[in-house]
Amino acid sequence: MTDLEALYRDLHSHPELAFAEHRTAGIVVERLSALGLDVTQGIGGTGVVGVLENGEGPTVLLRADMDALPVLEDTGLEWASTQTATDHTGAVVPVMHACGHDIHITCLVGAVEALVAARDEWTGTLVALFQPAEEHGGGAQVMIEDGLYEKVPVPDVVLGQHVTPLPAGMLGAHSGAAMAAVDTMEVTLHGRGGHGSRPETTIDPVVMAAATVMRLQTIVSRDIAPQETSVVTVGSMHAGSANNIIAAEAKLGISVRSFSEEVRARVLGSVERIVSAEAAASGATVPPTIEFGERYPVTVNDPAATERATAAFAAEFGEERLFDPGAISGSEDVGNLATAATAVKGSTVPLVYWMLGGGDPATVAAALAAGTMEAHIPSNHSPHFAPLAQPTIDTGVRALVVAAREWLA
Ligand code: ZN
Ligand code: ZN
């Protein structure tokens, strides 16, 4: 087992929730300091940035996210997590690196090691950024609002990667809109509570919620053109406490994904219209409350920079190890780092964010052939998500180094 594999196992068995990545950040600080980087910690809570100024040349930002998820691990791995933590609502929850951010941290530490070792071969400035809270709380934006680009050099390019269940050893970036925007909201439908035997004295929020959920599912099929894509998911629905009580209110947790600002505005408008109209149809006397939570923009890979990185990957790994993952309906906040840098510099700071395979190649190939990918291959956020340590880590380290060196003269 290599040092990086040991680091990965250690991170995997000690996952931490968003903004609570204290142990993880401590390890990152230690590793970066030992490598001689100029380290700033505590940016946006637990964010850590290491800077290596190595002569004239472009500034390249490599990004990894550090947070884990409230998932009960069921991978059976020897180094599986048994950790619990208190989440942002005060509940005690199991914690697991179910999105593979432990792989991202490990690969970025490995890439910094390699770039430090080869520092005679390149010039420029390396910025290694480890952000908190990608899954919950918008850690990238929080770092930016905490003065990120006053504390560290503003990059000329932002690079990063995400591990996926596709075959380990493969990688690829989708040019243009690569990942969806997400808008999350909590809708409170206000009714009037009362006795279950006397519905005529109440305004039943359960019926209101049920009708709303069904009608929300017509947005994608009726309001959006067939050539466009969007996802409307009602992921949570809470109301009531007993079978003979009509509740006073119902809460819906909704997430909307979209790939363009036009579709995004249209879908959000439809959600608002349907929620309000269904409440009115139920005779609600108080209009529904809509509270927005997480909102991430569309992740856009700069076409020219993506072509450049992809050509470098092809030269390093061979065309046969590259794939175009297409536009992904998951969402990311890595784009905020490039957008904020663009605003500071006044010229475009491109983003290239690629997908890194982590699945067992034989298992994935069999599932692809049988058409059982969805049923048999655990995706990110699954309690069974267990990327192979190798060749995933080696590939991820090399990909970061190769892409960084494409800009570092
Ligand atoms: Zn995730
Ligand atoms: Zn993730």
Structural summary, described in words:
With 409 residues, the chain is of the alpha+beta class. The protein folds into two domains: 4-179 and 298-407, Zn peptidases (Aminopeptidase, 3-Layer(aba) Sandwich), CATH 3.40.630.10; 181-295, Alpha-Beta Plaits. Helix content is 36%, strand content 26%. The strands form five sheets. The chain has a seven-stranded mixed beta sheet with strand order 1-2-6-3-7-17-8, with helices on both faces. A four-stranded antiparallel beta sheet has the order 12-14-10-15, covered by helices on one side. The longest helix is centred in the middle third of the chain and has 21 residues, at 261-281. The model has no long low-confidence stretch (mean pLDDT 96). One zinc ion binds at residues 99, 101, 134, 162. One zinc ion binds next to loops.
Bound molecules: zinc ion
Amount of helix: 25-40%
Q: Number of domains in the coordinates?
A: 2
Please describe the biggest sheet, giving its number of strands, its sense, and whether it closes into a barrel. Answer: 7 strands, mixed
Tally the beta strands.
17
The value of Rg in angstroms is 23 Å
**Shape descriptor:** elongated
Within CATH, the superfamily of the largest domain carries the name Zn peptidases
Give the amount of beta strand, in percent: 25-35%
The CATH topology of the largest domain corresponds to Aminopeptidase
